[in-house]
Amino acid sequence: MTVRRFFAASAGLVALLCTTFAAAQPNSAKPSAPAKPDGGALFQNRCGYCHLAGGTGTMMLERRLGKGHGLLGERADLNADFVQAVVRNGLNSMPALTRVEVSDEELSAIGRFLAAPKAARK
Ligand code: HEC
After folding, report:
1. How far does residue 39's CA lie from ligand 1's centre (Å)?
2. Residue 85, pLDDT above cutoff 50
3. Which domain holds residue 52?
4. Residue 95: CB within 6 Å of ligand 1?
5. Which of 16, 44, 47, 115 could form a cystine bridge with 51, CB 3.0-4.6 A?
6. Measured between alpha carbons, how far is residue 7 from residues 4, 12, 16, 23, 25 in Å?
7. CB 97 less than 6 A from any atom of ligand 1
8. Is residue 89 situated within a structural domain?
């Protein structure tokens, strides 16, 4: 294949991908229903990296607070203000997360999720 033909073929492929993507957009965007942040999903997504089983957050908290206190999602002693303060300021080996990483709205939802009684979290 010549270089020119290679570029022509690539451009065609890119164009095809672009139209496919553009065509897929309207279907995925639901017009009504303003998305309400799901605290549980956000916790998994933004914090799970460190705070699910086997994460450094889980291990560090177990070390500092004792067995059974490692998994934030299973703690019954967290309140939303504390969670927000830790996330914005950091704590020991946990880095502070900026509003770019986790928006205020997302953080409120995560705080509510972690502070909610466990039975209501499912
Ligand atoms: C890069 C890893 C990392 C991420 C991402 C992370 N954390 Fe942490 N977190 C830690 C570590 C490590 C600790 C334990 C700090 C210590 O005690 O040394 C911790 C501790 C905490 C504590 C303190 C619990 C206590 O009882 O003292 C809270 C609350 C917390 N994290 C919430 C969150 C939330 C909410 C998110 C997501 C928005 C999050 N963390 C994301 C690593 C992380």
Report:
1. 16
2. yes
3. 39-121
4. yes
5. 47
6. 5, 8, 14, 24, 27
7. yes
8. yes
